[in-house]
Amino acid sequence: MQIPKRPAIVGAGLGAVLLGLSLAAWVWSGRGGRDVERLPIDASTIVMLGDSITEQGPWASTFADREIANEGYSGYTTAQLVDVAETVAAARPSSVFILTGTNDIRDGQSPSWTVRHLRLILDEFERTAPETTVIVQTLLPRADRASEVVAANDAIRSLTDERGVELLDLYPAFDDGAGALRRDDTVDGLHLSDQGNQVWADVLDDRFAQL
Fold first, then answer.
1. Does residue 166 carry a pLDDT above 90?
2. Could you give all domains of the chain from N- to C-terminal order, each with its CATH number?
């Protein structure tokens, strides 16, 4: 599988250094330097597409009986995932579950910015892999940006309604009632603990069974 394209960096010296770091992160990334296996994608593959929350997901351990490709990339914004989506769509997987936007909030981007780039991702699958089942997931709660997550999720819901794309609403499964992840479900207020990943897996398992 091709390494996802990354935005061009001005300056040959700096570019070479950052490219080396980027390639290293592609092979070795995740919480605590966890080794992330990038499986090949074909028509029978379920693809999990997103940022570090997806990258750290329980795919191999919890879903060993399913062909799931981990296409989560730590730190990636929705804009950066557009190029990844191009590579994934070209392989025409069975389905793709998209979770993106929390790093847009980190960078101070608006919900409209997230939706603009998410629309490009959906366009790519519609154009290149119309037979792929596309499921967009809502952002997880986070206490430090609670209202921004709600606004982003509202915008994502509107987009999926407009496009007729399936929405898998993760937010209620994790919300502690105050816009944060429940204490036992997270390691740092943003990323999921083993228990949090199991909550996610339980939600996904019901949907996987319908594929």
1. yes
2. 37-208 (3.40.50.1110)
